Amino acid sequence: MNRFAQVITALAAGTVFGLGLAMSGMLDPARVRGFLDLFGAWDPSLAFVLGGAVMVALVGMAVLKRLRRPVFDEQFHLPATSPVDRRLVLGSAIFGVGWGMAGFCPGPALASLSLGLAPVALFVVAMLAGMTLHDRVWSRRMG
Length: 143
What we know:
By secondary structure, this protein is an all-alpha fold. It contains six helices and no strands. 71% of the residues lie in helices and 0% in strands.
């Protein structure tokens, strides 16, 4: 397959994703925390971002199901379906607590690095440390 085309496609998709995050307000931790504050001063604006993203993903998945293979690869690389288990629920809860505390999830955090703010860089370093700790310590214990 054409590796150059794969890289250019990935860069274009990442650029569009980052631009969408910036335009939608997902790079503003205060706005994200406002969205997560369901019982306080709830800001529903990001619900429209979520709804728009789900609609685009649904269309994308419908198109994907009609294709025999991707344009720039030999096969699709989709995750395996797995049951909801204790690890998934616990990991989701930890993710949610971190999201609520920091106002960032991984995609917006990486996009926010472009702002050049020290707290964002510190968050990304801590996020990477947590991911590394999991991969090096907990996944070996649980696997």
